Amino acid sequence: MLIERFDTEIFTPPCDPGAARFAARARLMVDISEVLPYLNATLRGAVYLPAAQALTWKKGGHNIAFHAYEIATSNAEEREEAERELRGLIELVNKTWDRRAEITPDHQTHQRPTPMAVYKSLPHTNCRMCGEPTCYTFAFKLCASQRTLDDCPALRQAEHAERLAELRTMVIEAPSLGKAD
Ligand code: SF4
After folding, report:
1. pLDDT tens for residues 57-96?
2. Which of 152, 155, 157, 164 to mutate to test the pocket of ligand 1 (most atoms within 8 A of CB)?
């Protein structure tokens, strides 16, 4: 196990004190820089910055950051949710570290797709079957990991098979925390 001891801090962001959103930060007793290329290889949509020894990731509307001695997550609705998310991230790091012999580390920086790039591959019908008013709104939420490709029924139609295949190569679809693949 890589991370055994850490201090946790739950707080409302300084830019918006008292806001009904919570952030959580774990200060680590161990340097986790070496695990970042393995997380980069397994977390779709992660952005790894080797020079800064940092990796950022989005999951379900949470902005997540891994640094050498710190893990942080933001935008939780409740204090308990922020703490739960943080513990899931620590477990994710530990599981990824334990599995590192099975993973080819990725030292490259990959940019996340923009909502416009994702939108271009959606069906453009604004049919609302996904519950969103437009395909662009859906694209925006896909990029924020708030929706998944399965939420667009139109993409399951045979005529959109090519679009779906293209989207699968570019869209962020976050795994459950605690699972690195
Ligand atoms: S279901 Fe798909 S095609 Fe229809 S509006 Fe939503 S994203 Fe667009």
Report:
1. 988 778 899 999 999 999 898 999 999 999 999 999 999 9
2. 152
Q: Using the mean position of ligand 1's atoms as its centre, give its distance from the Cα of residue 21 in Å.
A: 29
Show the tokens assigned to 133: 């008013």
Q: Specify the pLDDT at position 148.
A: 87
pTM of this prediction?
Answer: 0.70
Q: How far apart are CA 128 and CA 84, in angstroms?
A: 33
What phi-psi label fits residue 126: left (phi over 0), alpha (psi between -120 and 50 degrees) or beta?
left
Strands 22-28 and 47-49: unpaired
**Which pairs with CB-CB distance under 8 Å and at least 24 residues apart come from 95-99?**
95/178, 95/179, 95/180, 96/35, 96/38, 96/39, 96/42, 96/180, 97/1, 97/2, 97/32, 97/35, 97/38, 98/1, 99/38, 99/180
The residue with greater pLDDT, 177 or 80, is 80
Ligand 1: residue of 127, 134, 136, 143 to mutate (most ligand atoms within 8 A of CB) is 127
Residue 31 C-beta-side C-alpha neighbours within 13 Å? 3
Q: Name the pairing type of β-strands 70-76 and 47-49.
A: unpaired
Cα–Cα dist 79/11, whole Å: 8
